[in-house]
Specification:
The complex is a heterodimer of chains A (279) and B (312). Chain A is an alpha/beta fold and 279 residues long. Chain A is 43% helix and 11% strand. Helices cover 41% and strands 21% of the residues of chain B. Chain B starts with 5 loop residues before the first strand and ends with a helix. Classes of the chains: A alpha/beta (279), B alpha/beta (312).
Chain lengths: 279, 312
């Protein structure tokens, strides 16, 4: 996909996110929207996957360690054809397979159940280790929140991955700067994030704008060239990106828009879509 | 009993892993800086590339096990019971139990027979914790032969299994041609009409000893080895309760939530009879030689005998 197509797809993913969260009357739009471009880049450009064969043995793996942004993952999976888009409206509903947090047992395309912060990265490390043990060539990607890295388990996993030189592993940190209780550097600062991963023997790539497809492409292309160590991509993003009243607002971490807000959000995104069509 | 061969079930665990490792390429052993104590060092020596020391980071180790399992490997995650069931409880619940991944947890150093290390390392809560996770198989062998059979059965079972092994060398009691191990199936070791003793782990041998003492007093105890606490062999326990009218549970675990808890839950609904739970009585352990501790906490043959005498 070219850049414009990726941008248009990411905008569709954003519409899916707000639609799903609105229908669920609950969920986490802020961190789903900040990572929408990343989800789109991974599933439409970077990863070796086949929506018709979600369990393909040699597929690349993705673990959503920040599992509460399931609306983002589900939306990109639906856009990619893993399951029908209309099912997104059943998110969090009783009886729906689209659970509040990723459930690998029931959702096509979900490689690991997650949601309890800090745990997904360990599973991703296990997958990367497995590939090394079996001489398999697949790559493993995992997305963490910048608040999530306050969990100690993240650094247990990082220490292991660096020590074991898992160069088939890419850890992405969505540095949108906000967590439930406020700004990450006011709650319990994780900074400097890049230097921490460097100290754990990662190749670190700082991405100035993680909502920019060119910068994402440059980062993932660079990660592919890294040998002998895992890569950490620390990307600065805007929480709530694309929806005017959600941008940079900690309050939209885990709240659904009401009908009026939903209409406003869709209008914002329609405008972005129209602008992209003019390009 | 001094001439009886004694082997710690943690050693059986290590030996069984080596045997299974020869047959199964997909078997991977994880440890957290305790390979000498958990005895996975035996496997490490034989298959260094398939033994992964995760360092002192049990939560991450459980997660790595989960990740390995998603790719078809069969990981045996090994550490002390305290850290496997205690520290990493939530990782076991959310990263292994919820997605029902094929991870085996080999938890050594269960119970107070850990000995000198004292209360911080004497896990008497693991059965209760692990049993509460949906789909988790929870088992604890009575001797070397059973431990080896259990490790093999755990490998063959598809899904998560928690196994508790001991540090202390215990008598080999299952060395007989007709011994057969099946997860979830209890084994009647002694017939008796006056009461039923249900035990697991090293308490099985001690219960047999207690049954001999009771017999000398004219009390005939049926003794059942319930090596699998979950799924519990309810049919066998209910039948025995109806047959003997009284049940005693014996385990090296808190009387809250373990084998005693499981048996009471079952019998209260299906065959209410008086039950006496023998175990660690809602207290922490302490430092001391294992054998002396078992005696002090009433879990040796004599202690079990006395408590049953007071009950019947």
């Amino acid at each position: 996909m070219n850049k414009l197509e990726l941008q248009k797809t990411a905008n569709e993913v954003r519409k899916d996110i707000v639609t799903a969260v609105h229908a669920a009357k609950a969920g986490h739009p802020g961190g789903s929207l900040s990572a929408a471009d990343l989800f789109t880049y991974l599933y439409f450009e970077e990863m070796n996957i086949d929506p018709k064969d979600p369990k393909k043995a040699d597929r690349d793996r993705f673990v959503l360690s920040k599992g509460h942004t399931a609306p983002g993952l589900y939306s990109v999976l639906a856009e990619r054809g893993y399951f029908p888009k209309e099912d997104l409206k059943t998110l969090r509903h009783l009886g729906s397979y689209l659970q509040g947090h990723p459930d690998m047992k029931h959702i096509p395309g979900v490689d690991m159940s997650s949601g309890s912060l800090g745990q997904g990265i360990s599973a991703a490390v296990g997958m990367a280790l497995s590939a090394k043990l079996s001489n398999d060539s697949y790559r493993v990607y995992t997305l963490l929140g910048d608040g999530e890295i306050q969990e100690g388990q993240v650094w247990e996993a990082a220490m292991f991955a660096g020590f074991r030189k898992l160069d088939n592993l890419v850890v992405i940190v969505d540095n949108n700067g906000l967590q439930i209780d406020g700004k990450v550097d006011e709650v319990c600062s994780p900074y400097p994030i890049d230097k921490k991963f460097e100290a754990f023997n990662f190749h670190v790539i700082n991405v100035e704008d993680g909502n920019d497809m060119d910068q994402l492409k440059a980062a993932f292309d660079e990660a592919r060239t890294v040998k002998g160590m895992p890569t950490a991509i620390v990307m600065k993003t805007v929480k709530g990106k694309g929806v005017s009243f959600m941008e940079n607002q900690a309050g939209w971490h885990g709240k659904a828009p009401n009908d009026e807000q939903y209409a406003q959000a869709m209008e914002d995104l329609e405008k972005v879509g129209e602008a992209l069509c003019q390009m | 009993m001094s001439d009886v061969k004694k082997i710690a079930t943690r050693a059986s665990y290590g030996a069984a892993l080596v045997e299974l490792g020869k047959e199964h390429e997909d078997l991977v052993v994880l440890d957290a800086d305790l390979a000498a104590a958990t005895q996975t060092g035996m496997f490490q020596k034989e298959f260094p590339e398939r033994h992964i020391d995760c360092g002192i980071a049990e939560c991450n180790m459980v997660g790595i096990g989960a990740g390995l399992a998603t790719t078809g490997k069969v990981p045996f995650v090994s550490t002390f019971a305290m850290f496997a069931a205690g520290r990493a409880f939530e990782q076991v619940r959310n990263s292994v139990g919820y997605p029902k991944l094929n991870v085996k947890i080999g938890a050594t150093h269960g119970g107070i027979s850990v000995g000198e290390d004292g209360a911080t390392h004497q896990c008497c809560e693991d059965f209760a914790l692990m049993r509460s996770i949906p789909g988790m198989v929870v088992a604890s062998p009575s001797d070397d032969i059973e431990a080896k059979a259990m490790v093999k059965a755990a490998y063959e079972h598809v899904g998560p299994v928690y196994m508790r092994f001991g540090r202390l060398a215990v008598p080999v009691i299952n060395d007989r041609p007709d011994y057969k191990f099946e997860l979830g199936k209890g084994i009647v070791l002694r017939e008796g009409k006056d009461l039923t003793i249900v035990a697991n782990g090293l308490c099985v041998a001690a219960s047999l000893e207690a049954a001999e003492k009771l017999a000398a007093d004219g009390i005939e105890a049926k003794v059942i080895n319930i090596h699998t606490i979950k799924p519990l062999d309810e049919d066998l326990i209910v039948a025995a309760a109806k047959e003997t009218g009284k049940v005693v549970t014996v385990e090296e675990h808190s009387v809250i939530g373990g084998l005693g808890g499981a048996v009471c839950e079952c019998l209260a609904e299906k065959a209410p009879v008086p039950v006496k739970r023998i175990g660690v009585n809602d207290v922490f352990g302490e430092s001391g030689p294992a054998v002396a501790l078992l005696e002090k906490y009433g879990l040796d043959g004599e202690g079990i005998y006395k408590q049953i005498k007071a009950f019947v």
